[in-house]
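Proteins fold reproducibly. Next comes an illustrative record:
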Amino acid sequence: MSGPDPRFADDAVNLEVLRERSFNLRWATLPADVIPLTAADIDFPVAQEIREAVKAWIDRGYFSYGPAEGLPEFRAAAATMLRTRKGLASASAAQVLATNSAAAALETAARFMLAPGDEAIISDPVDFLFQRSVQEAGGTAVRWACDPATGAVDFEQLARLITPRTRMIGLCNPLNPVGKVWTTPELEQLATIAEQHDLWILSDEIWSDIVYGDARHVSIASDHFGVGGRTVTVTGLSKTFGLAGLRIGLLHASDEAVVEGLLEASGARSTANGAATISQAAAVAAWEQGWDWAEGFLHHLHAQREFAVRRLREIPGVELRAPDGCYVLFPSIRQTGRSSEWIAEHLLEHHRVAVVPGAARWFGPGAEGHIRISFATSRAVLEEGLSRVAAGLQALA
């Protein structure tokens, strides 16, 4: 497509609808004069192909129970996506389970892998859902540091963190909120340690389509690393396709006995849990027809990232690593001498822009001294939001 993509133009963002439907610390939960650069959700309407698939599903007139493991067409489309886009050459429909969100998939995997009292090593910082999932399973989360300024990790530290109670390493690739895309040598070291200590790997790859520049997402479940049998992969459709409200994700494991254990842990057989069939229909449409939209969105994000990094670096004292993946920024605000919670409240109350504080409750103790900013919006919204962030931080100089 030549010229600006109208699907991601300023006027493509419908604030009237967003203020009715966009919750989770965003447009519908904040006063009308506040710009939310908070939850990692998309401000643009979803692809037309997905909307048409949902309408077609509705027009058939039935909303019956689906199979606990997911619709056959969902599992088949997911397996094709994993083979063609994630490098899992032997992925099959039988290795896939539909879940009601990637978040639910994380909890299911943790319940399968952990018993009460077990330990799981997770990144610091990382999205709070990792710690929550471990705790929901009765386990203890042990933090492995990642430097937000560089993305560096220490594998000697990882080895030291392992105890007789360790059962799992949690991998978020790309890593939210740091924006780190794990390199092949890093994944090789992680795989070796997992093999040496007979540990599960829980790989959250929900951000795997959102990578920039020379960065390349590589799945640790691919054959190269030799740990597919001990890896459970989680992904979903919220970050790439904007389907957060449809609550749809998946679990993948190469060992079908593991798939059976995950299904039992999910509660889907009892109908107390499980993915809505209409959401699965939307997912199939996304994977089979939505990649042109997703690639246009990624092109827009490239430009947003470059603009936002440049704008934030103009603020005196702000330090920022340009993310290799994700559509969030994680600038340091240590120069203010204030906590991240204080800064977020200051920006909201006095400058009418909402950001996520780098607080332990959201990302772990390693996030303090930072704020997280989402840029999955229009250029006009981002420009105004970052101008307010700049004014708020410069007022403290």
